[in-house]
Amino acid sequence: VGFAGINMRRHAVRLLARPPIACRKLGIAPRVSIQTEALPFDSVRIILEADEHDPHVFQLRLPSALEKLRSDERRAVWLTLQGECQARLVPAALANGFSYHHAEGQHVVLALWLTQAMPNKIPAFATTQVGCAGFVVRELVSGAGQEVLMVREPRSFEKWKLPGGIADRGEHFSQAAIREVFEETGVRARFKRVLCIRHQHGLGVPASATLKDDIYVVSHLEPEEGAGNLNIDTDEIQEAAWHPLEDVASWTQHPINMECLRAFGEGTGRQEAGYLRKVHRVSSMISKRD
Predict the structure, then answer these.
(1) Are 151 and 239 in contact (CB under 8 A)?
(2) Distance of alpha carbon 257 from alpha carbon 278, whole angstroms
(3) 249 to 142, 255, 287: CA distances (angstroms)
């Protein structure tokens, strides 16, 4: 039993040392050299096929490839590794001077600055997120004023806030604001103009190493005809309601809300509006207090 146990353990160690079955390709001859593709700013990208994931072969080929790139006066080299199989190449890349740049989904990107003639110019991975909100305004049926659409969440600076969220990749400010308003409140609206932009830093959990810069864009939207009925997304918000601009101006102290009220009033030629005077008064009080 003792010898059988030892043999079983040895067999298990051998299995762990072998790559996953999905990563093994039989009868495929490795390339003699590493292929690259030229990129702007005298940099290159290493091209790996899906079946190139043997760490021993990669370690043998990489040093000479990097030496060739240096002799060609290339400044930087990028390496993208896809999935579980190519992730086995990470140790070899790190051993040859590469550093992690970023990871997303099923791929990781590493980079290496090649030249000693100047400091490392490889830009850090983008850490700015873009949030978009809609300042949706409709005329009161009585014609005696206007209302703005606001939502209530479990956690927010004030009880009511503007509907909004993070823009998707490739999405314009206007598209993101229209989408977020519809998803949260069920109101379809049209884009009119950008009202204000806020830029701040250090959002996120400090211990998570994922702090981000944040650009928040608020757009003036106009509800489509007959689109004032609310149908909220209870997964995201608790409540949605139309609020008279005068009422919002009387209680809000949020800088974004106040700037939107000011920009909306001035942009529509309503400098005499009572809510605009309230905004200027509250803003002045806050400035003196700070």
Answers:
(1) yes
(2) 12
(3) 20, 11, 16
| 31 contact partners, CB below 8 Å, separation of at least 6 | 52, 61
What per-residue confidence (pLDDT) applies to 209? Answer: 59
How confident is residue 2, by pLDDT bands cut at 50, 70 and 90?
low
Output phi, psi for 186, to 5 deg. Answer: 80, 5
Distances (CA, A) of 278 to 91, 159, 248, 265: 62, 19, 10, 12
Query: Measured between alpha carbons, how far is 146 from 264 in angstroms, rounded to an integer?
Result: 11
pLDDT band for 86, please (50, 70, 90 cuts). very high
The CA-based dihedral angle spanning residues 57, 58, 63, 66, taken in that order and rounded to the nearest 10 degrees: 140
Provide the greatest CA pair distance for the chain.
Answer: 94
φ and ψ of 108, to 5 deg: -125, 140
Predicted model pTM: 0.68
Phi, psi of 169, rounded to the nearest 5 degrees: -60, 130
Instruction: Work out the number of other CB atoms within 10 angstroms of the CB of residue 159.
Output: 11
- Over residues 263-284, mean pLDDT: 57
Given this model, what pLDDT does residue 10 score? 47
**Can you tell me the distance from the alpha carbon of 77 to that of 158, in angstroms, rounded to the nearest whole number?**
48
Q: What is the separation of C-alpha 238 from the centre of its chain, rounded to a whole number of angstroms?
A: 25
Confidence label for 287 from pLDDT (cuts 50, 70 and 90): very low
Alpha helix locations (H) across the chain?
2-17, 55-71, 83-86, 90-95, 173-185, 245-251, 255-267, 274-289
Number of Cβ within 10 Å of residue 283's Cβ equals 16
pLDDT top residue among 274 and 150: 150
What confidence tier does 282 reach under pLDDT thresholds 50, 70, 90? very low
